[in-house]
Specification:
Blueprint lengths: L2 E2 L6 H18 L3 H13 L4 E2 H13 L3 H13 L6 H13 L3 H13 L6 H13 L3 H12 L9 H13 L3 H10 L9 H13 L3 H10 L9 H13 L3 H13 L6 H13 L3 H13 L6 H13 L3 H13 L6 H13 L3 H13 L6 H13 L3 H13 L6 H13 L3 H14 L12 E3 L5 H18 L5 E4 L13 H11 L5 E2 L6 E4 L1 H5 L5 H8 L22 H12 L3
Parallel strand pairs: 3-4
Antiparallel strand pairs: 1-2, 4-6, 5-6
Helix pairs in contact: 1-2, 1-3, 2-3, 3-4, 3-5, 4-5, 5-6, 5-7, 6-7, 7-8, 7-9, 8-9, 9-10, 9-11, 10-11, 11-12, 11-13, 12-13, 13-14, 13-15, 14-15, 15-16, 15-17, 16-17, 17-18, 17-19, 18-19, 19-20, 19-21, 20-21, 21-22, 21-23, 22-23, 23-24, 24-25, 25-26, 25-29
């Protein structure tokens, strides 16, 4: 063992041993500053120190939650020509993992491996926990598998499995979490409630509420006693799956086990009932909190307002906002947006607009969801001019209206008989890039994924009218969804065919190799124009000297009559 300082001979080992014991004692008492001071005094005084001494000091820093000091000592030892061992690296990795410096913890772990040191189970557990904090579930599972292949000394324990399962939980990798939890008995590892809870939480995040309930019911067979975290995770899984009755059943079982539901439990139940549109039940749960000696928080009220939104109860939402203020709870953007959504569902557009104004007066910044809820309220009431004003207000507030926002406004225009205005609004949105119907990699292809049916109809009209006006009568393809990568019937096919055949009299062909696509051609588009035979005869034999479309129609053939064709098509489409 290499040493630094001190006289050679028998005195040095005794001095090193005594110093190591002193530093370890400081570590047990979490007195890392004293450990660092004692080591500094030893080095400056010329006392003999070796890698074991530094390991003890690094361990003291790790126990005292001083990862930077631990790393500094590790680098100091390396600079002095000492070779820190597994204990030193393990302590440094553990210190950084506990401080949530997961990237540095993993960097030190891999440095240890590259230096030829064999990791111990302590360092593997710390690295696995670091993966969990960094949401690196695959790396966590890989570390567990590596330790399992490393022999009896590296056999993963319940800490290893719990950390790996927690990493899967954070990433909603529920299948991997369930598989790891199922391995515990086969690996002769005692199951504990930490791994159990992490598995239920993983299933909850993955929206597999049935798995949550199955695990909960299986706890007695595994000799596990579920705690509040177990029941809350299962209730949350039911809430995510919109299973309000199952969530209430979990809470009932919780009380039968003499575990008091917390504010987290009640908030989960209120949210679950809101997803089932049982707003009265949500309000009842909110009212029960006082009797259970629980104080509702902002989340409680936001969940209840969400229930009022789902039930289309604007007056209930207003009352809840008032109760929040009475309890000195400040409504946030979620509160206001849900209340505005309740106005939208309850056809109270004027109240929605007033709430938006109140939100801004409260010095809160409305977000896109807030504006969308307000615009939807006006759209459902047929106040199309106000939807346009609100859209402009979004831009002035520094928000970029999304494609969905434009579709709401478009629906308002179409629903009030403003077809020409809707067409111009759509064209302007495409020009700005707010709506993007054209396929980025395939010219002449309109991609209607995420388009509602009425918006797709407007897009077809605009594309055909613009092609007629420009005389660019080439092949057009419309992607209507449910193609070769999907199942079922294309959801937009009928809407697109209605415009092509019913409004423009165009024949179109379904691509049966990919039924999510409809084609029409330049030759068919030419039939929309009057005097087509005369135009083609005038061009005569010269037509063969020009570039042709996919059907053989020259690109500029329809230009002299394009405007007339456009007027004819507009007259047809304007009646729709």
């Amino acid at each position: 063992m290499a040493t630094v300082g001190g006289a050679a001979g028998v005195a040095a080992p005794h001095a090193v041993k005594a110093l190591t014991k002193a530093l370890a004692a400081f570590g047990r008492n979490r007195q890392w500053e004293l450990a660092v001071d004692r080591l500094s005094t030893a080095v400056l005084g010329g006392e003999a120190v070796d890698a074991i001494v530094f390991s003890a000091a690094i361990g003291a820093c790790a126990r005292g939650h001083a990862p930077r000091a631990a790393l500094a000592l590790l680098r100091d030892a390396q600079a002095r020509g000492l070779r820190p061992g597994v204990d030193a690296f393990s302590a440094a990795v553990t210190g950084h993992e506990r401080a949530r410096s997961w990237a540095q913890a993993l960097a030190l772990f891999w440095e240890m491996c590259r230096s030829g040191l064999q990791p111990d189970i302590v360092s593997i557990n710390a690295a696995t926990s670091a993966c969990e904090k960094g949401h690196l579930w695959k790396e966590a599972v890989s570390l567990l598998r590596g330790s399992a292949a490393g022999g009896a000394q590296l056999r993963p324990d319940v800490v290893t499995y719990s950390a790996a399962i927690s990493a899967c939980e954070k990433a909603a990798a529920w299948a991997a979490a369930v598989a790891l939890f199922g391995e515990l008995r086969g690996a002769s590892v005692q199951e504990n409630v930490i791994a159990f809870n992490a598995t239920i939480s993983a299933c909850s995040r993955g929206q597999h509420w049935e798995r949550c309930l199955a695990l909960l019911s299986d706890a007695p067979r595994r000799a596990l006693r579920p705690d509040a975290v177990s029941f809350n995770a299962a209730a949350s899984g039911c809430e995510r799956g919109a299973r309000w009755a199952s969530a209430l059943a979990v809470e009932e079982e919780m009380r039968q086990q003499n575990i008091s539901p917390s504010i987290v439990t009640l908030n989960t139940l209120i949210s679950a009932c809101s997803k089932g549109s049982y707003w009265e039940l949500s309000l009842g749960l909110l009212g029960e909190m006082h009797g259970r000696r629980l104080e509702p928080d902002a989340i409680s009220f936001n969940c209840a307002i969400g229930a009022a939104e789902a039930g289309g109860q604007p007056q209930v939402a207003f009352g809840l906002l008032g109760r929040m203020r009475a309890r000195w709870l400040r409504p946030d953007a979620v509160s206001w947006t849900s209340a505005i959504g309740a106005c939208s569902s309850g056809h109270a557009w004027d109240s929605a607009v007033q709430l938006l104004s109140d939100l801004q007066s409260a010095e809160l910044r409305p977000n896109e969801l807030t504006y969308n809820a307000t615009i939807t309220a006006c759209e459902r009431a047929g106040i199309w001019d106000l939807t346009l004003a609100l859209l402009e207000g979004m831009s002035q507030a520094g928000l970029v209206p999304s494609q969905d926002t434009h579709f709401i406004v478009l629906s308002a225009l179409l629903g009030t008989g403003q077809a020409p205005r809707a067409l111009e609004f759509y064209r302007a949105a495409v020009e700005r890039g707010s709506v993007q119907p054209w396929h980025s990699e395939e010219p002449g292809v309109l991609d209607f994924h995420k388009f509602p049916a009425e918006a797709a109809k407007v897009a077809v009209r605009a594309a055909l009218l613009d092609a007629l006006a420009a005389g660019e009568l080439g092949r057009m393809t419309f992607v209507v969804g449910r193609g070769k990568h999907s199942e079922g019937d294309p959801v937009l096919r009928g809407a697109v065919q209605e415009v092509l055949r019913g409004e423009f009299g165009l024949e179109c062909r379904v691509d049966y190799s990919n039924p999510g696509r409809i084609h029409t051609t330049g030759k068919r588009l030419l039939r929309l124009l009057p005097e087509r035979p005369r135009v083609l005869r005038r061009r005569g034999a010269c037509a063969h000297a020009h570039a042709h479309t996919d059907d053989g129609a020259a690109p500029g053939a329809a230009a002299p009559l394009a405007e007339e064709g456009r007027r004819r098509a507009v007259a047809t489409a304007g009646t729709k």
